[in-house]
Amino acid sequence: MKTDIEIAQSTKALPIEKIAEKISLPLDYLENYGKYKAKVDLSFYDDIKHRKDGKLILVTALTPTKAGEGKSTTTVGLVDGLASINKKVMGCLREPSLGPVFGVKGGATGGGFAQVIPMEDINLHFTGDMHAITAANNLVSAIIDNHLYQGNELNINPEQILWKRCMDMNDRALRQIQVSLNDKKAIVRNDSFVITVASPMMAMLCLSKDLEDFKQRVDRTIVAYSYEGKAITIKDLKVTGSVAVLMKDAIKPNLVQTLEGNPVFIHGGPFANIAHGSNSIIATRLALKCADYVVTEAGFGSDLGAQKFMDITCRAGEFKPSTVVIVATIRALKMHGNIPYEELKQENVEALKMGLVNLKQHIQIIKSYGVPLVVSLNRFVSDTENEIQSVKEFCDIENVAFEINESWEKGGIGAANLARKVVEIVENPNTYKPLYDINLNIKDKIKTIATQIYGASDVVFTDNALKQYDQIESLGLERLNVCIAKTQSSLSDDPKLLGFPKGFTLTVKALNISSGADFIVVIAGSIMTMPGLSKDPAAYHIDINQNEIVGLF
């Protein structure tokens, strides 16, 4: 079979104006970026906000493994699958980060015959949103250090600066740096970079409802403390307007298409292991007015992306998800049953059954939110009938819907049965509610997630985290959400613990305030907010020949 990029390059895309017609989007609201991608003016929402919302479908997965799950592939395939049974549908995806593209994980446009295009553009610079977010974020950093240099009128304590620089690339060398080494008058201080998708600027973009909401979030963002312990905000730095100007285009959602010509918004791209992990509220709200069914995805497993979608994104966007699709693969289940990667293509029903404990916990996570769900088995060629039957029987016992997805190989037709199942279960009783009461204190919110979602027995805080907790209390920020940053490779905070670990203690190392995003970032375990490259990164294998990109997945 062809590679993903070969399939994408061999597909004749429709002009973006034709995609706009499918969602009744007047061309006056379309801002073209070439022939096959465009931004949508935010005023379009004002014209259609009276319309009834469509059904919101969230795609999540079990705990990811090296074997792969295909969550984005399932999301795109389900869009095409719903269109194939004559449903008016849109997809909402996150924008890929250049870090994974040139690192190991790859892009975020699906795979096989379930992709969004133009995949090369989307996975690279796209419409420039990532660069705008990076520039806006780093403008704030530049203003902070200039303020120190110009006399420090706000009396900022250089050792209490919370705001970090960012870059959209994996670069471990930037995890700890020193700045202002070039001038005797400047204040030398320790600093660090985070990857752009983990920056507060990205979170604020994705959680805003419109430009005015975004500006208010920027205004209240705490960037540092004074020597007296006073919180210093971006409003105090007087650059909210400049930040908004840099973000004036990035805040508009991007319209693209699937291989089968169905509309998709791609906007915003926070990681789910170190940020909140879902596309922008702006894009989702607009899509819900444009289609009867909207399919979106949240990063990594349901313990990360789905939990944050339910507790953070749905609160901010005032969404009510209609159903959840949990993506699983036979290979991943066997890996959770402690089978080495090299042996995953061999039938092993017993190992698969051992690995089902991981899927069971993800089912329980979604059930705890009161939303109907379906388990979607992303089928691989090596899957045997005995293995598939074992998963189906397990779902029957758990009283959850089950369907096979073959969209990677067959496109929309391969997801048609999954689409029919989704249309059926969106009508099931839905008692959605967030996991925790927003009025709980931060420690109780963390413990609720750790025990009920991850299966931890307890939570411990380092001395550094306790000190930061005292600052949170003193600022009256107890009512913020919590966004836990932890490994995606395990339900615990230890990436080596597969399956469903029990009896472990979650270790909280830091509590970082992201007041503009209305949450506290909880650093658990050994998670890094600036990833590094592997010994053999994808960057070694990508090239361009006469305008044709090769090696990109």
General description of the model:
By secondary structure, the chain is α/β, with parallel strands linked by helices. The protein has three domains: 4-126 and 250-425, Rossmann fold, CATH 3.40.50.300; 129-243, 2-Layer Sandwich (Domain 2, N(10)-formyltetrahydrofolate synthetase), CATH 3.30.1510.10; 442-524, Formyltetrahydrofolate synthetase, domain 3, CATH 3.10.410.10. Helices cover 36% and strands 20% of the residues. Strands 1, 2, 3, 4, 5, 6, 14, 15, 16, 17, 18 and 19 form a twelve-stranded mixed β-sheet that branches. It has a four-stranded mixed β-sheet with strand order 20-22-23-21. Helix 9 packs across helix 11 (240-246). The radius of gyration is 23 Å and the shape is globular. The two termini are 13 Å apart. The model has no long low-confidence stretch (mean pLDDT 95).
For this entry, give a set of tags.
553 residues, Rossmann fold, Domain 2, N(10)-formyltetrahydrofolate synthetase, Formyltetrahydrofolate synthetase, domain 3, twelve-stranded mixed β-sheet, four-stranded mixed β-sheet
Q: Which shape, going by the Cα principal axes?
A: globular
CATH class of the largest domain: Alpha Beta
Q: Which spans of ≥5 residues are poorly predicted at pLDDT below 50?
A: none
Range of strand content: 15-25%
- At the third CATH level, what is the topology name of the largest domain? Rossmann fold
Report the sheet with the most strands, covering strand number, pairing sense and barrel closure.
12 strands, mixed
Number of strands: 25
Count of all domains: 3
Summed over residues and divided by their number, the pLDDT gives a mean of 95
| Tally of helical runs | 20
The helix content, as a percent range, equals 25-40%
What is the radius of gyration?
Answer: 23 Å
Structural class: alpha/beta
